[in-house]
Amino acid sequence: MEHDTIVEIHSLNHWFGKGEASRQALFDVNLTLKRGSLTVLMGPSGSGKTTLLTLIGCLRSVQDGSVRLLGQELNGATDAHLTALRRRLGFIFQAHNLHESLTAAQNVMMGVQVQGKVANRLANQAATHVLGLVGLSDRVNYLPANLSGGQKQRVAVARALVANPALVLADEPTAALDKDSAADVVELLKRMGKARATTTLLVTHDNRILDAADRILTLEDGRIIRVEERAK
Amino acid sequence: MIRILHALFGRLPIGWLQLTHNRPRFAAALAGVAFANVLVFVQLGIMNSMAAATYRPYKLFQADVMISAEDANSLTDGGNVARQWLLQAMADPDVTDGMGLFLANAAWDRGAKDISLTTFGIDPAKPGFLATEITAEINFLKVKDAALLDRLARGLNRDEAAAVRPQSPLTFETQGRTITAYTTFAGGGGFSGDGYMLVSDQTFLSLFPARRSAAPDHILLSLRPGAEPEAVIRRLKVLISDPGLRIRSYSDAAAEDLRYQQTKRPTGIIFGFGVLIGVLVGIVIVYQVLSTDVSDHLREYATFKAMGYAPGFFLGIVLEEALVLGLMGFIPGLTLGSLILKLMGMMTNLPLAMTFSMAFSVFVGTVVFSALSGAIATRRLAAADPADLF
């Protein structure tokens, strides 16, 4: 079962704030993500998309309901357990969030080294290989300051994918990019996802990604109001 | 460098990369650490020279027990001791010999620069109480108005001092008398006097007519070999019916003198505080650099947290930075500190120098306090919440 079901969510509720001031952000969310699927999460701002993403990404504690990630229950999991699970995920943020003091290769190496001690040479090889896959083999030793916006986001994609994560979580990965760079990154996510059978959950408004999606979920006021399955 | 550090830490040396990324700030941080080091070195150097300068006069003599007045906190201050106690002390079977030690400052008028000589009056018939280096010269003191002069005295020309020999003695006037120095010894200026002079007790009393032979400043006693000084001191305290007197072993007296100089006299306290302030300045500089660095990289750290790095990883980065700053700041600090101490020693004629133990303790202190401020700076890491990245 674990092999095919990456994420399984049952009656998930989430609140922000305490007591009288508390506000419910998610209502009775149920969701399953299968291996290799690309799911797009849509909805107006404040609808709870990001909250859902951070709960699946082990960045917030589950308050009520059940989230099973890679077969493990997140409700009640310890911080150390959540940290360990995060190492099996790949994160892509709206901003590239690269470390300005590290070269492209060193930034990608950070995604390797989180898995444990790796020899400098091996980590560097892995990083260079993935940078080649995202089309940056001639920018391996560049600092982020010397890369364009699209190139930086491609380095970020390489960093998220270098350790072969079971699940990639992306939050508006193309929002800060111009049209051409955005197209590159979408193409890349699609291609890499297919090649490595990676499960992808991404929040976006970008129509080019909608075309690539297997399934489109729409959230409104903390509830999933529409599920659209796309034929392959 | 990066490869070496990588091999050392088993991960990318992110702290090193972060620090060296902003070169001007890195240079300023190193200069700050070096400055704190220099500050501590100079103060420690002065404290050390104080110890050397305090022990210096004690090293001119050898004795087992010293009897001093109640208010004699150092060799040079305090009242007199009645000579009768010397005779009393001799009654103890373990006390083999005793000598009254007279002491006063004699001003040697040298025109523009006067030399203040701490003058000791001793019994020329008792060479056993003199340091071995000068025992042989004690016979010169049997002549009236003869002296042994400190060739390292501040204000005394080195060549002039080197020329002093029995065949070519140096004659000078002090305290209204003409004194002849037949030979010299190595003393050196301290914090109070410029140098030392040894004369016989008779010469001393004619130099300082207000002083009486029945009241020396200290009484030095030597004990039978194998005698237990503590036991003798206990017996002497019974034998000598003046409870106000200080009866201590000679080495205890020197150590108490130093403690007094370092903790009770303003100079000692000032330099002690100087060391403390140097350490505080160092902590503040390293803390400031590291906490700014942590704040500047909160977003990157939050990203690393999201990727699954555990809290210990970030502590490791900040400690790595603290070590880099401490180690690399120490080298210029040591160099500059040694130079400044050498220069100060040349200018003041005080025994100022960099010692290995000073360098070692400041090095250890720099690394420990850098790591400490690094550990404090990591408290800001709590603000790096990966959930805020989305």
From TrEMBL, chain A:
Superkingdom: Bacteria
Residue stretches making up the ABC transporter domain: 9-232
InterPro entries membership: AAA+_ATPase, ABC_heterocyst_DevA, ABC_transporter-like_ATP-bd, ABC_transporter-like_CS, ABC_transpr_LolD-like, MacB-like_ATP-bd, P-loop_NTPase
Keyword terms, alphabetized: ATP-binding, Nucleotide-binding, Transport
Pfam family, one: ABC_tran
GO molecular function terms noted in the UniProt entry: ATP binding
UniProt-recorded name of the protein: ATP-binding cassette domain-containing protein
TrEMBL record, chain B:
Keywords, ordered alphabetically: Cell membrane, Membrane, Transmembrane, Transmembrane helix, Transport
Recorded topology in the membrane: Multi-pass membrane protein
ABC3 transporter permease C-terminal domain location: 274-385
Regions that span the bilayer: 26-46, 269-290, 352-376
Pfam families membership: FtsX
Cell compartment(s), UniProt: Cell membrane
PANTHER family: ABC TRANSPORTER, MEMBRANE PROTEIN, HEMIN TRANSPORT SYSTEM PERMEASE PROTEIN HRTB-RELATED
The protein's name in its UniProt record: FtsX-like permease family protein
Organism of this sequence: Gemmobacter denitrificans
